[in-house]
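agent: user wants the structure for GPR180/TMEM145 transmembrane domain-containing protein from Mesorhabditis belari. delegating to structure tool.
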Amino acid sequence: MNVAMPKYAKRCDGVKWLFVVCLSLQFSSTLTVHVKGIWKPGEQNIQVITKFGFQQTDNRHPRTSRGFIYGNITGVQRPGDDPLLFVIISQANIGLLHSEDSNYGKSCSSIMQEIASNGFESRCKPKGTADIFRWVPCPAGKICEEEDPDNSTTLIPGYQMTMQIVEPQMPEYWFLVLIGCHLNGNCSWVQSNSKSTLNYDFWLTNGDPQDLSKNPFGLQFSFDEQDATQMYLATLIAYLILCAIIYHGRSIQRKHYSPTRLKLLSWIVYLKTAGVALQSLNMLQFAADGEGFLVARLAGEVLRMIATDVLCLMLLLLGRGWAFSGPSLKPSKCLIVGWAFLSIVKFIFFCCNFIFVYDILHDVDVFSSWPGHGMLAIRIIFAIWFLLEIRVLIKREKHHEKATFLAHFGAGFLVWFAYLPGLGCIAHFITLLWRFRIILGITTLANFGAILCLLHIFWPNSQYRKYFNIDYGNRLRASRTDSNELEDFERLLYAENTDSENDSPADDDQPSNIHNMI
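agent: tool returned. relaying tokens verbatim.
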């Protein structure tokens, strides 16, 4: 890992504060790349602003593929104030900064001994090879002291300072940190006496922001999220197509009877579509301004979570026998109350995970935090609950063909319930730079696949509809007696045009005729 070094090292007075937007839920954690804020060194000696994943530099296009950190740091210094330090620290060295107490209680000499070992500073460290320091604040209205105004390759016009990151081997996270330390006359690291409030405004990009051919969906994003926008947009298109298919399916039955199960599935798809649309809006806004639309992001995540919980409810009801055991079976009130309680607890865990748990210095996500573990535990409870319900339903079923279908149905959707805890175990072995995209892709595909399977089963012309809303044994008996009466009943239930069907009374030795009649 190297840090690109400009012709002149910059002595820039500056400030930075941390505003990191990280949603640790199943799957997303966008870090703000346009950071603005204030730092009061008198109240907090060390301020970690943000972290950002810089991509591997392409040797064929080194200028346009390296990372850039550029912006402004201003403040009013009183006479006699020592300068303050702005430093960028790699993931490999960030542990040197952290101490056991929350105020980063290490002395300046112990903090900077390892961090500054290869850093360049024109007075005390002229042999340093890494451009990782800036003295702050910078003069108001001017570039930082050691910036070269005549070298356009090292400075982004309109900003006081520019730093470039070169990663020749692999992507890596870098942290932006403000520290109340400075080098004294003996070139020793000592505590700064400055209490001035500093204001900062910084951009972080993967690639040259001046490059007109840059990828708009990669420039503003940390490496771990560079493909997320395309993934959200592709998911949105898929759900919009699914909405159109469901609308067509329901229109077939609109004049007669639309099954409750199909209505409920429709709402699940609509909630998913709305949630993905809001998150896509946030990602597009983020690509434009580096900040995103936080309200849209939170609302989208909540809608997606509600849709997933409603899908769990539908599967639990189906496991209990709702829609399988005849129209007389009402949805269980106890089951709904239990589901609602667990869903509310899960939502509380979600809020705690977002508000209280995030730590910028550590790799914390939904699979490694205590609220995340609580959410996974609830998912496991749903899985066990579904397994018990479907087993009872299968044992109660008297007809072998329907019992076989229920066994396949239960096994398939039990996998959907159980995959998320399993993914949580595997996620710990995936580097954080790739984890978000892998989790997002797997969870999106799994949820979409589960909904698609249910839609296939519930479809008006599906071969599986014979297992719903009427006892399977009654269908067998009806097929042996009066096919015309059964056709009338089917028209009422499924709104089919029986003029195109030429059903004949079924023979006892031909149970496959049940499929043709229904």
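agent: one observation worth passing along. The chain has a mean pLDDT of 78.
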